[in-house]
Specification:
The chain is of the alpha+beta class. It is built from seven helices and nine strands.
Length: 367
C-alpha cells in the first residue's frame, strides 16, 4: 500500500508542497476525528478499533484515558467464584463511596464498579495481581506513514484519515497564500528590483553663466562719454578739483570737431569692449544650452526605458496574480471536493435506525 504521504499527495496535487510536520499532525488529528465520528454514527464498529489491557491496580499506566479514548467495557476477576464480573459505571462523585461498607454505593467483588476521573479508570474493589481487571478501550492507534497502516483501525477507515489529513494540508497551504503575494513594484524584497527603476535627475555639471561685470562697465562708460561725463568716474586733476573729461555733447556745442571725434572714438572702443564681453557670454550660453540638450535627451531615453520596464513589471505582476488566483481557486475547489468525499465516506459506514423506519411504516422489529 502506498504511504499516507503519497496518498495525501494524490488529493492535494503535489505532495512536495505539503509540509512533513503538517502531515504528521494532520494524520494524528484524522485518527482522533475518525474515532469520534464512528462513535456517533456506528458505535458497534468501535469494537473493531479497540484493544483490551489487563489492570492490576488503579495507578496502572494501562488504565489511563487520553484524548478521544473511549471505554467500551470493564470487568474484574472474582477469584472466589472463578469468574469475571462486569463492572458497572457510576458517577465519579460517588466513586469514593464504593469502598465504604456503610454506603449504598459500596461495591463488593461480586458487583464491581468503575468511573473515569482525571484521565484514569478507577475500579472498585481495586484490582490486584490475583484479581485483575480487563479494560477494553478505543485508543488512537499507531500511525505508520511509510507502510500506510494504523494499528487498531479497520483498513476501510484509512481513506477517511487520509482525506481528513489532505484537507488539513490544503487549508494550511491556503493560509500561506498571503506570503506569496508581491507587496509592490519597487520594494527591495521583491523580484521586481531585477528591473531598473527610473532615475529622474538631470546631471548638468555647469551652472547658468552670468554676464561679466566688464560688459556693464563698458556700456556705462560709453553712455557717459556721450551725454553725462559726471558719472563716468576715473581720473581727476592732480589737485583733486575735478575731472577734465567732457562729453561729446559739450564738444558738439563748442563746435570742436577734433575733441568730438576723439570722445566718440573712445566711446566706440568701450562699446567694442562690451561687444567682446557679450560675445564671450554668448559662447558660454551656447555651451550651457548644449549640455542641457544632451542631458534632456538622456533623460528622455531613460524615461522611455523606465516606461518599458514599468510595463514589464505590470505584466509580470498580472501574471503572478493570475497564477496565484488560479491556484487559490483550485485549492478551494479541492477542499470542497474532499469535504464532500469525507461526508460520503461517513454515510457509507453509518448504520440506519431500521426499527424507527419500520415504525413509520406501521410495523416494528421484535425484541
Amino acid at each position: 500500500m502506498a504511504s499516507f504521504t503519497n496518498q495525501i499527495g494524490y488529493l492535494t496535487g503535489d505532495k512536495n508542497k505539503n509540509q512533513a510536520s503538517v502531515i504528521v499532525e494532520a494524520l494524528k488529528n484524522g485518527v482522533k476525528e475518525t474515532i469520534v465520528k464512528v462513535s456517533q454514527i456506528n458505535p458497534n464498529m468501535l469494537h473493531s478499533m479497540s484493544s483490551t489491557v489487563a489492570v492490576t491496580a488503579n495507578d496502572d499506566n494501562d488504565n489511563k484515558i487520553e484524548e478521544n479514548n473511549l471505554v467500551l467495557h470493564v470487568n474484574r476477576y472474582d477469584s472466589t467464584n472463578s469468574l469475571r464480573r462486569d463492572c458497572m459505571p457510576i458517577d465519579k462523585k460517588n466513586i469514593l463511596k464504593a469502598v465504604d461498607t456503610g454506603s449504598i454505593y459500596y461495591a463488593p467483588k461480586t458487583s464491581p464498579v468503575y468511573s473515569i476521573d482525571n484521565g484514569r479508570i478507577l475500579i472498585y474493589p481495586e484490582p490486584t495481581a490475583t484479581e485483575n481487571s480487563e479494560v477494553t478501550k478505543v485508543v488512537a492507534g499507531t500511525i505508520n506513514d511509510s507502510n500506510g497502516t494504523i494499528s487498531e483501525m479497520p483498513e476501510n477507515l484509512y481513506i477517511q484519515v487520509v482525506r481528513f489529513a489532505a484537507r488539513e494540508c490544503l487549508l494550511e497551504r491556503l493560509g500561506d497564500f498571503t506570503t506569496k503575494l508581491p507587496t509592490d513594484l519597487d520594494a527591495d524584497t521583491t523580484m521586481f528590483d531585477m528591473i531598473a527603476d527610473f532615475d529622474d535627475s538631470i546631471g548638468v555639471t555647469t551652472t547658468l553663466p552670468s554676464i561679466h561685470a566688464d560688459y556693464q562697465d563698458a556700456v556705462d562708460k560709453a553712455q557717459h562719454l556721450i551725454d553725462d561725463v559726471s558719472q563716468i568716474g576715473g581720473d581727476v586733476n592732480v589737485d583733486g578739483s575735478g575731472t577734465d573729461i567732457y562729453s561729446a555733447q559739450k564738444w558738439l556745442v563748442d563746435e570742436d570737431p577734433e575733441m568730438l571725434g576723439g570722445t566718440l572714438s573712445t566711446a566706440a572702443q568701450e562699446l567694442q569692449r562690451a561687444s567682446a564681453v557679450l560675445a564671450g557670454h554668448s559662447a558660454e550660453i551656447n555651451k550651457y544650452q548644449a549640455e542641457i540638450s544632451k542631458e534632456s535627451q538622456e533623460a528622455g531615453q531613460a524615461l522611455q526605458e523606465y516606461q518599458a520596464n514599468l510595463q514589464k513589471k505590470i505584466q509580470l505582476f498580472s501574471t503572478i496574480i493570475s497564477k496565484i488566483t488560479t491556484d487559490y481557486q483550485w485549492l478551494q475547489g479541492q477542499i470542497a471536493m474532499i469535504t464532500q468525499q469525507l461526508e460520503q465516506g461517513w454515510s457509507m459506514i453509518a448504520v440506519p435506525d431500521f426499527d424507527s423506519q419500520a415504525k413509520l411504516l406501521g410495523g416494528g422489529i421484535a425484541k
